[in-house]
Amino acid sequence: MKTLWRAAALIVLKDLMLELRTRDIVVSALLFALIVIVVFNFALDPTPGLIALVAPGVLWVAVTFAGVLGLTRSMAMEKDNGSLQALMLAPVGREAVFYGKMIGNVVFMLVVEALVFPIFAALFNLPLAAAGLIPVALLATLGIASVGTVFAAMAVNTRSREVMLPILFFPVVVPVILAAVEASGIVLTAESGSATSRWIPLLAAFDAVFLVVCPIAFNLIVEE
Amino acid sequence: MNGADADRLAIEVKGLGKSFGRVHALRGLDLDVRWGETLTVLGPNGSGKTTLIKVLATLARPDRGTVRVAGMDVSASGRSVRRNVGVVTHQPLLYDELTGRENLTLFARLFGLDEAGERAEAAARRVGMSRRLDRRAGALSHGMRKRLGIARALLHEPLVLLMDEPESGLDQEAQSLLQQIVADGSTPSRAVLMTTHSLETGIALGDRLAVLAGGRVAYSAPAESVSASDLRRAWSSHAETAP
After folding, report:
1. How many domains does chain A divide into?
2. pLDDT tens-place values along chain B, 243 residues long
C-alpha cells in the first residue's frame, strides 16, 4: 500500500513539474472556462431570479468542459511521448498510475476552479465567500477527475480523441454534475445550509463508487 | 520439460496466442531463452515481434498459452516480472519537458531504487550520456534520446533485457555501446531477447536466432551455424505467411 501511494505521489509531482514548465493544461482549461462564463453572462440578462435558476448550471458546464480539455491534454501528453508505457513498466500496480494521474487532474481542476469561481461570482453578482461551495467543489471535482481519467485513457487511443472523451464521459458523470449543480444552487442563493446535506452525501457516494470501479477499469484499458 | 530445465530458462513461452480484434498477432508461439543467452528474433513487419515483447514485458495480456519470465508467470506475477525486466522499445519513452537526469531519477524512484540520483548517473554513463544529462530530453537528437531510453531500461540492472529494434536511429558509436550492453546482458545470470530487422545485427549480437512468421517461430538456429544468406532465405520463404 505504501508503494502504491509513493508511486502515485511521484506521478503527481511529475505532472505538476511538467505543468509548471508548459502551463499547457491549466491555461487552456482556464481560458475555456472564462470564455464560457463571459459568454453566458452576456447572453443572459442577469436578473436575481434568473441567476438563481441558471448560474449553478453555467458554473458547472464551464468547469466540466474545461476539465475535459485538461483531461484530454494530460493523457495525450503520456500517449504522444509513449511515456504511459514507461509508467506501466514500473513494478507497481496499475492503480498507482491511475491514482497519480487522477490526483494530478484533481489539482489542475481545483486551480482552475479557484481562479474561475471569484470571476464567476463577480460577473453574476453572487456571494464571493460562499464557504459551502468548497465541499461541493472538492467532491464534484474528485468524481469528474476519476471518471475522466479512465475515459481519457480510453479515448486517447482513438483517432478523434477530443470528440470521443466527452461522448464517453458525460453520460457516466451526469449524476455528479446534477448533484453539484443542485448543491451549488442552494449554497449560492443562500438557502438553508441543511438543504445541501442531501446532495453532499450523494456526491460522496458517487465518488466512493468511482474510486473503487475506475482503477479496475483503468487497468483493463491500459493493458492491451 | 523437467524442473531443472525450467530453472535454466530465463524466458519460457508455450502456445502463446494473442489477437487484436480479428488480427491474430501470435498463434501458438513456442520459444525459450536460457540464462546467459541472447536470442535475436527476426521477422517481417506484422510477424508478431513487438506483440511478443509487449506480452513478455506485461504490457499486453496473453489470450492463450503460458509465459514465464525469470521463473514467474507474466499474468499472475506482473509486478515481480516488471522488477526483473528492462525494456527498450522503438520510442525512448521519456518526458520531453524533463531533463535526462529528471527522467532517469523519476523512473529510478518508481522502481523503488535507493540513491536514485546516483543510479541515474551510472546508467547515463553506460550509454555515454553523462555530459548531456541536464539537457531537456525534447532538445536532444533522436539517437541521444534513444540512448537515454536504453539508460532508463538499465536503471534497475534487470535480469532479463527485452529490446525491440534497439539499433534503429543509433549512430556507429552508439551501436558499439549497444553491442557491449547486449554482451553484458548475456552473462550467466542474465538474458537478452532482442528483435531486429537487420539480419547482420541479428547474427552479430545473438547466440541464437529465431525467425517469426504468421505469429509462430518459423525457423530457429544457433547464430554460429547460420549465414546472412541462410537467414534471408528463411525470411523470404516465410514472409508471405505474415497475418
Report:
1. 1
2. 555 555 779 999 999 999 998 889 999 999 999 999 999 999 888 889 999 999 999 999 999 999 999 999 999 999 999 999 999 998 889 999 999 999 999 999 999 999 999 999 999 999 999 999 999 999 999 889 999 999 999 999 999 999 998 888 788 888 888 888 888 766 777 899 999 888 888 888 899 999 998 889 988 888 888 877 777 777 777 665 544
Mutation pick from A19, A81, A222 vs chain B, by most beta carbons of B within 10 Å, is A81
Strands B216-222 and B208-213: antiparallel
Closest CB from A14, A83, A91 relative to B82? A91
| CATH entry 3.40.50.300 includes domain B3-95+158-241 | yes
* Cβ(B98)–Cβ(B135) below 8 Å: no
Model pTM score: 0.90
Chain B: closest CA distance from residue A39 (Å): 34
For chain B, the domains span 3-95+158-241
Which residues form the domain of A116?
2-223
* Cβ-based contacts of B102 with chain A (< 8 Å): 17
At B191, list the grid cell: 538474458
Say whether B115 sits in a helix, a strand or coil: coil
Mark yes or no for CB contact A18/B61 under 8 Å: no
Do the Cβ atoms of B107 and A93 come within 8 Å? no
Contact A89 B61 (CB under 8 A): no
Residues 6+ apart with CB under 8 A from B114: none
ipTM topping 0.85: yes
Pick from B59, B97, B109: which is nearest to A223 by CB?
Answer: B59
As beta bridge partners, residue B27 has B17
